[in-house]
């Protein structure tokens, strides 16, 4: 799913896209549906949702699915990312997804965490993944 956000309401557009993807989550085992949406460097929004597998370790997070959609769409830079889930605790990206995000984002990239009713908290990637290993380490 890709589309261009309106000039205003960037966060609204990210939340809307993430919620739409989350509505299609395949999470029959955890029953924990997650949606993610990326505003990419091409100005488009790429969304993803988690999809689990009866062979449990094969499931994929919403953030990873959104990154895959972005790469398939031809973009290679995350400007902002929003993740939405239910529950009382903030659904911050898991450790593995923080590293996946790092591949396409910088220290100051904003990571927004939302609940179904709206934005709850925003972080920088450096706050979530300090002293990160990244592409620069291999240059
Ligand atoms: N999950 C995500 O999709 N993103 C997160 O940030 C945290 C966890 C998914 C993985 C699994 O399908 C379910 O939520 C429960 O862990």
Question: What can be said about this structure in brief?
Answer:
This protein is an alpha+beta fold.
* CA distance, first residue to last residue: 33 Å
CATH H level, superfamily name: Cytidine Deaminase, domain 2
**Strand count:** 6
In the CATH hierarchy, what is the class? Alpha Beta
- Our count of domains comes out at 1
**Which consecutive residue ranges, at least 5 long each, have pLDDT under 50?**
none
Q: Mean of residue pLDDT?
A: 95
Relative helix content: 25-40%
Account of the protein in words:
The protein has 139 residues and is of the alpha+beta class. It has a single domain (7-138), classed as 3-Layer(aba) Sandwich (Cytidine Deaminase, domain 2), CATH 3.40.140.10. 26% of the residues lie in helices and 25% in strands. It has a six-stranded mixed beta sheet. Strand 2 (34-40) and strand 3 form a beta hairpin. It is globular and about 40 Å long. The model has no long low-confidence stretch (mean pLDDT 95). Tetrahydrodeoxyuridine binds at residues 27, 30, 32, 34, 50, 52, 59, 61-63, 83, 91, 93-94, 97.
Write the layout of secondary structure elements.
Blueprint lengths: L1 E2 L6 H13 L11 E7 L4 E5 L12 H11 L5 E8 L9 H8 L7 E6 L2 E7 H4 L11
Parallel strand pairs: 4-5
Antiparallel strand pairs: 1-3, 2-3, 2-4, 5-6
